[in-house]
Amino acid sequence: MIDLTGQRAIITGSSRGIGLAVAELFLELGASVVITGRDVARCTEVVARLGDRHHGRVVGYPGDVGNKDYIDALVEFSSTTWGGLDIVVGNAAVAKPGSVSSVSEADFEEMLRCNLYGNVWLARAALPHMIDGGGGAIVLVSSIGAVRGADRMGAYSLAKAAELALVRTLAVENGRYAVRANAVAPGLVGTSAAAGLWRDEPARFASFEARNPTGRMARPEEVAKSIAFLASPAASYITGHTLVVDGGSSITLDPLMGTHA
């Protein structure tokens, strides 16, 4: 039921982790994708590797999503390259530890620019292309921290929660144009970005595993499948929704993330 044949997609933060898993799955499902990331060498390597299997359907455009000029250029490049734009996945993120009251101004500003402003700019730039093409899908990758309180990552969670309001607003404003907007809120995922949470504190991680109904953290490809569903025609009547992908951790206490009942 999930078929992306002929769909043209931008996936931010797709040179590693969840974003890379999304790119790989989208290509397998028939889409053409633009790989992005701040590491130029890594983007180049990923495009070359994926291009060996999906020749002509993957290109790269590295840069910083916290820069509006880059976002505008990324969307223009993508639309020109593929002749249109159907799907945008806002996955790139910056996560800095700290509560709302303790985080530095510089770290908070960086998280807002990447996690919120970047996705606002991305949607604003992409929408005209989607509307001209008869519709499209926007999927933002938020966090379980957006729907639970988190003292260790409070400022990050605040920025990610704003993404959920963004998809609801985009859904209401653009449903008439056949543009859908949704979000996924992953729990702990086995990526290099989250390694500090599960490698450096084994006792807390063991407690997380014991309390999570599935007994484990997610694999990036599991989150990618949820994103592919929301981006596909299989989710044609779903918009403004946040899909929690956490193995059930949000229905239990999660000591690893420092959340509270």
UniProtKB/TrEMBL annotation:
Q: Which PANTHER family match?
A: DEHYDROGENASE/REDUCTASE (SDR FAMILY) MEMBER 4 (PTHR43943), DEHYDROGENASE_REDUCTASE 4 (PTHR43943:SF2)
Stated family: Belongs to the short-chain dehydrogenases/reductases (SDR) family.
Protein's name according to its UniProt entry: SDR family oxidoreductase
Organism name: Aeromicrobium wangtongii
